[in-house]
Design goal:
The chain is mainly alpha-helical. The chain has 6 helices and no strands. It is globular, with a radius of gyration of 18 Å.
Length: 188
């Protein structure tokens, strides 16, 4: 890699290590709200580093159409981020929960804009359109489940958030693969 992306990759690795250690500990002992908050901060640092690396690689590639592949991959990340924010909003103390809920609202808007961009992208096929339509339905089910995370049936609401976000993330994996294949066909 050229020096600038190599430095950004080093930042991604540096951000990943403490988060990986924190998740390893959490698999053996349920985390406290403070540990959840700390892990969330580590995850946000990793996300910022990964976004910077992705942008640098995209800019350096000279391939504008690759943007649609990266946008699809980012939507998968946004689904996971939204689920994390919604779930943490129900587990953290009030001030931190409000911050998570506000973050979820921003993630929701960013997701909606990016999904609309993919739906209007010129790079398409019957398979891409089918997965986009499926994703739109899954997105609506995830949005519906977000309002069920509180109240007397909170456990079922949280389970629905997990289930729907995982299904949607899987669809974006599939969509990203379809875009990559289409790019390979176009670029030879």
């Amino acid at each position: 890699l050229p020096p600038a992306p190599a430095a950004l990759l080093a930042e991604v690795r540096a951000a990943w290590q403490p988060l990986q250690q924190a998740t390893a500990v959490a698999t053996h002992t349920p985390p406290s709200p403070a540990q959840l908050h700390a892990a969330d901060a580590m995850a946000e640092r990793l996300l910022a580093a990964a976004e910077a690396l992705t942008a640098a690689l995209e800019d350096g590639s000279g391939r504008g159409p690759m943007h649609v592949v990266n946008r699809s991959g980012r939507l998968r990340m946004r689904v996971q981020r939204l689920a994390k924010q919604a779930l943490l909003a129900g587990l953290l103390p009030a001030a931190q929960a409000r911050a998570q809920a506000e973050g979820a609202a921003q993630t929701l808007q960013a997701f909606e804009a990016a999904l609309a961009e993919l739906e209007q992208a010129p790079l398409s096929s019957d398979a891409i359109r089918a997965v986009l339509a499926q994703s739109r339905g899954q997105w609506q089910r995830l949005r519906d489940s977000l309002g069920r995370g509180d109240g007397p049936d909170a456990a079922a609401g949280r389970a629905a958030i997990v289930r729907e976000s995982e299904a949607l993330a899987d669809s974006f994996d599939q969509l990203t693969q379809l875009y990559e294949h289409s790019m390979q066909v176009l670029l030879g």
